[in-house]
Specification:
By secondary structure, the protein is mainly β. It is built from 4 helices and 18 strands.
């Protein structure tokens, strides 16, 4: 179903039905159709009201979302849709069922309305359709980095998350975990369900990895002793390398080398996952003129995501993937790694990838930062890894 509806402020809304891709193994795709659009208020109080209907022959729980475009539908999910309420999580049936969404567009898009603006409704069985992990084959990436000089990275086969862990996935696992032996996992925070979860520390990320392994019937990776007899589930415990069961098929954090190798995406001797320069069209970071390789025409925070209260994060799939098919390997939020900082063992773990509030310098594939493992902030998240092929 497809239709065009003109509304105030030269805000043109395209109500387009979107049939979302199904998760592997489902008998049928969820479907959604827009049935009506109206607008109330003006200026910063503008609200877009969307009515829709949906069905899913498998009767699964569905995630309902709204995507926006500023360029007549050429690109989606670059402009933020953060202030969304209504029927965003529903239990589908085999019969068409009605739902409604309310988007505070004036909050998210104030001053950005134009006749090129479009919205569309999505429905999916999970926050992302398709495979969640990317297989990285054994290999060596060696060359001369523009900033670090000669380097050589060698890895054995492993699997790494295509996206940073979202708030939707965090909630899904946490809701199970707190009732099944993981009592102190925090709620976390995010701008939206498809944004990276933040306000989680290193201990939280590690315990969550074990909780998801437990829930999925896999062997957890992290233990409280070198005999691997007691699964790490609660409290803040400084794990030793010997307490890690690297051969387990469960989920874990990537090592420093695994993270950098994956970030390079198969390219050799490049500063960023895609080349030697960076702009706001490629990543969410704080742009400026301090570095010659920062060629973004817009300065400061990313103009699409500097809305509402901080953190100014973006949906985890908002930018183009690198050569390995991995999203967000530069910018958005720092990602916790397994490794200790080499000069601060016992105090700090490494973080990689750059962040929305720091400069292009920190988005380079060789950049690192570190912090105490108990710190929770609006700019620390994580990405999953696995030694054994995880279930997709």
């Amino acid at each position: 179903m497809r239709g065009i509806h003109f509304i105030p402020l030269r805000l043109l809304i395209l109500a387009s039905a979107l049939i979302a891709l199904a998760v592997t193994g489902l008998a049928a795709d969820p479907q959604v159709e827009v049935t009506g659009i109206s607008v109330t208020g003006s200026g910063g109080a503008t609200v877009v009201n969307v009515s829709y209907r949906y069905l899913d022959a498998d009767s699964d729980a569905l995630v309902i979302g709204l995507q926006a475009s500023a360029d007549d539908g050429a690109t989606w999910d670059v402009m933020p849709v953060l202030s969304l309420t209504g029927d965003t999580s529903v239990q589908a049936t085999a019969a068409w069922t009605d739902g409604t969404l309310q988007w505070a567009a004036g909050t998210d898009w104030l001053g950005q309305f134009s006749d090129q603006m479009r919205v569309r409704v999505t429905a999916s069985d999970s926050i992302f359709a398709g495979e969640e992990f990317v297989a990285i084959p054994a290999g060596t990436n060696a060359g001369t980095d523009p900033d670090r000089g000669e380097y050589s990275l060698s890895v054995q086969p492993y699997y790494i998350g295509k996206y940073q862990v979202t708030k939707a996935l965090w909630d899904e696992v946490r809701n199970w975990a707190v009732e099944n032996g993981y009592p102190d996992l925090p709620i976390g925070y995010a701008k939206g369900l498809d944004h990276p979860v933040v306000q989680i520390n290193w201990y939280d990320a590690v315990k969550w990895c074990n909780a998801r392994s437990d829930r999925d019937g896999l062997t957890p990776v992290y233990y409280t002793n070198q005999d691997h007899t007691t699964i790490y589930r609660t409290e803040e415990l400084d794990l030793e390398d010997e307490w890690v069961k690297w051969s387990a098929n469960g989920y874990r954090l990537p090592t420093e080398v695994e993270r950098e190798y994956a970030a390079r995406g198969g390219l050799v001797s490049k500063r960023f996952p895609w080349g030697d320069t960076i702009t706001h069209s490629q990543a969410n970071y704080y742009a400026g003129e301090d570095y010659g390789y920062d060629v973004s025409p817009s300065d400061g925070y990313h103009p699409y995501y500097e809305v509402g209260e901080m953190p100014y994060t973006n949906p985890v799939d908002a930018f183009t993937a690198n050569g390995f098919g991995l999203y967000g390997m530069a910018g958005n939020v720092w990602e916790w790694n397994w490794n200790w900082h080499p000069d601060r063992e016992g105090l700090s773990r490494l973080l990689c990838g750059g962040v929305w509030y720091r400069s292009a310098f920190f988005c380079r594939v060789v950049s690192r930062t570190w912090n105490q493992v108990s710190i929770r902030t609006d700019y620390y998240g994580f990405r999953l890894c696995s030694t054994i092929p995880p279930p997709q």
